[in-house]
Amino acid sequence: MIDPQHDEEIDRGGLAALVAFSAGDLPTGELPTTDPPTADPTGEIEADRTTVIESDPTTVIESDPTTVIESDPTTTGTTIGLDPQPTPVGGVPIIEGLPVARAHRWRRRILRTIVLLLLIGVVYYGVTLFQVWTVGRSDQARPVDAIVVMGAAQYDGTPSPQLRARLDHVVTLWDAGLAGVVVVTGGNQPGDRFTEASASAAYLVDHGVPEGAILEENASHNSYDSLVGVRDLLRARGLDTVLLVSDPFHSLRIRLVAQELGLTAYVSPTRTSPVQGKSAYAREMKEAAGIALGRIIGFDRLLSLTG
Questions:
Q1: Cβ pair 255, 244 in contact under 8 A
Q2: 119 assigned to some structural domain
């Protein structure tokens, strides 16, 4: 049989306990509960900064502005810590060394550019060398205002074998009636009694060229200055079309220089030069290098750089 007084005491005791719990008077563990506490999925609940917080994706977590929230791509929650890591996008981690990656890309671009420029330079030089070779083996002999022979070494008034080969070719062109004027070029070295021009003029006179048809440019010491002197001599006489005589390897450069100076220039290389074989090939390669650079910066500036 149920005692109403006993039931009333139980109700009063439970009510007192509930009031005491609400007031914070009950010790921990004495609160009667109807539902067990939610279990931590990891088995551990820590109250420090490494606690993993499980939350709804739509939940906004508000924290102290000094707190750093880090996203761990291996978890569904957010890790709170002091050392921030880049937030992955689409599950792919962001590379921390992005500036390093950019530096690598720039280095690769610079390397590719250098390689490309080197290839262009090699092709450009190869084309120029081929032009030196082909022009040296061509003959543009035709009627002109003047035949111009480029100077070479002379020995006390006697032309060297190289200069003599050029002069012999001039005699052939003169006899063909291609011009009414011959211009000889070249100064002298310290201690020489004769210039290259005077030695050339004497040789031509001895081989049938009238002395009155010969003009001497006898102050120069390089091909560029020789052609500047030739231009001035011819312009003073109203002449500007020339047929240039020299060794095959030398022909392209003197034609380009003459054209740069405003002359209408053609070439007729000698075929009897003593410079042959490997020596000729070496000279052609050197000429190609000078011509390749001279075309870019100008032959006058090339002379100022190389002397």
A1: yes
A2: no
Tell me: the pLDDT tens digits for 189-199? Answer: 888 899 999 99
CA-based radius of gyration for the chain: 49
Size of the chain, expressed as the number of residues it contains: 307
Decide if pLDDT at 89 tops 80: no
Q: Is residue 18 part of a domain?
A: no
- CATH number of the domain encompassing residue 219: 3.40.50.620
**Tokens describing residue 274:** 């003593």
- Using the predicted structure, report yes or no on whether residue 266 has a pLDDT greater than 50: yes
* Position 143 in a domain: yes
Burial class (CB in 10 A: 0-12, 13-18, 19+), 78: middle
Is residue 283 over pLDDT 80? yes
Contact 151, 245 (CB under 8 A): no
Q: Is the pLDDT of residue 278 over 70?
A: yes
Q: Is 95 inside a domain boundary?
A: no
Cα(131)–Cα(136) distance, rounded to whole angstroms? 8
Judged by DSSP in three states, 214 sits in strand
- Asked if 214 and 201 count as a contact pair (C-beta separation under 8 A), the reply is yes
Read off the pLDDT of residues 123-162 as tens digits, 9 standing for 90 and up: 999 999 999 999 999 999 999 999 999 999 999 999 999 9
First to last CA, the chain: 133
Domain that includes residue 213, residue range: 132-288
| CA-closest candidate to residue 173, choices 147, 199, 153, 145 | 147
How many other C-beta atoms can be found within 10 angstroms of the C-beta atom of residue 289?
A: 14
Q: How many domains, in total, are found in the chain?
A: 1
**Two tokens, residue 91:** 């599950």
Integer Cα distance of 18 and 243 in angstroms: 124
